[in-house]
Specification:
The protein is of the alpha/beta class. It contains 10 helices and 12 strands. A 7-stranded mixed sheet has the order 6-5-4-7-8-12-11, with helices on both faces. The chain has a 3-stranded antiparallel sheet with strand order 1-9-10. Strands 2-3 form a two-stranded antiparallel ribbon. α2 (about 40-45) runs parallel beside α4 and α2 (about 40-45) packs parallel to α5. The protein is globular and about 45 Å long. About 45% of the residues are buried.
């Protein structure tokens, strides 16, 4: 996939249209096409005894992102090959996994058979999750809805399907990283220059070789994210900005050199708890 070439900005997220924007279908097509490249990576993740997070595989023993999930009804929003759900199931959670890509779900189904773990796989858009109100105790996204869905849509949906006291956990690229991708070359790595505005960032378009939009990612400034979470009834419990290990090797080429990710965060992990009725 290409790098972020252009950010549509201008004073914060735009008003929401009446139906899901075209990014849902664009991202679905992109991930269906790219799904074969994630089979081996998914298998390695399923085989891991310990969860790890982000492109640098920071281990759960160090990050300590997960609560005790035993007995919790959990949903993974944007599950890809389903490895996070597998980790949760092994820890005693009752899990459901949702993804926008049928091809990614096919890989998840295959890996369920290989590893002997079965949980429901749902083909749907996390911006319009097909679940009843207050169905889950935990909603989690690692490089799924947290990147590829509009936060102004998927975070209210997460709030809707979580029970009072339920937790939301999501892992995505760091805000500062998104600002450091050059705007004139989709293949260029993050560098030491701020190439775009921090204020108003929201939608980032990535392009294919012919210049057409290949996929669409989303990112909010930290203040806007905190405001959005609070408006949806969440209290923010933590924001962890992950540093790459000294000997880190990325699990996927995200366009971030190790030297860069040792100096600045390329991954951020949020935890929040639903404590009030959304505004």
């Amino acid at each position: 996939m290409g790098r972020a070439r252009r950010s549509e900005s201008g004073g914060g997220p735009p008003p929401l249209p009446d139906v899901s924007s075209e990014h849902v279908l664009v991202n679905r097509a992109s991930w269906d096409e790219d799904a074969p490249n994630w089979v081996a990576r998914g298998r390695r993740s399923w085989a891991s005894d310990e969860p790890f997070w982000g492109i640098w595989s920071n281990p759960e023993s160090e990050v300590q992102l997960l609560p005790d999930v035993s007995g919790l009804d959990s949903v993974e929003l944007g599950c890809g090959t389903g490895y996070v759900s597998a980790w949760l199931m092994r820890r005693g959670a009752r899990v459901v996994a949702l993804d926008n890509s049928t091809k990614q779900l096919a890989t998840a189904r295959m890996l369920q058979t290989e590893f002997g773990l079965r949980f429901p796989l749902v083909h749907a858009d996390a911006e319009r999750a097909p679940f009843a109100n207050e169905s889950f105790d935990l909603a989690i996204s690692e490089y799924g809805a947290a990147i590829w869905c509009d936060p102004c849509r998927w975070i209210p949906e997460a709030a809707r399907i979580l029970r009072p006291g339920g937790r939301l956990i999501f892992v995505a690229g760091a805000s500062i990283m998104m600002l450091c991708f050059p705007t004139d070359d989709d293949e260029a790595p993050a560098d030491t220059t701020l190439h775009r505005d921090y204020f108003g960032m929201h939608r980032f378009e990535w392009h294919g070789p012919d210049g057409t939009v290949d996929n669409v990612a989303f990112q909010l400034a930290h203040g806007e994210m905190i405001g959005l979470l609070r408006s949806c009834g969440f209290d923010v419990e933590g924001l962890i900005e992950l540093q790459a290990p000294a000997d880190g090797t990325p699990v996927v080429d995200a366009g971030v050199p190790l030297e860069w990710a040792r100096r600045w965060p390329s991954v951020e992990a949020w935890t929040a708890r639903k404590v009030r009725t959304p505004l």
